[in-house]
Amino acid sequence: WNHQNIAELNRVSAWIKEQMRLFGIPCQFQNYIVNRQNYRNVVCSLNVGGAEKVIVGAHYDVFGQVQGADDNASGVAGVIEAARILSQEKSHLSHNVEFAFYTLEEPPYTNTEYMGSYVHAKSVQAQRDKIQGVYILEMIGYYDTALVQEYPVGLKWIYPSHGNFIAAVSDIDSRGLGENFCAAMQQLECQRLVAPSFTPGLNFSSHSNYWNYDIPAIMLTDTAFYRNKNYHTAADTLKTLNLEKMTQVIDGLVQTILK
Question: pTM above 0.90?
Answer without folding.
Answer: yes
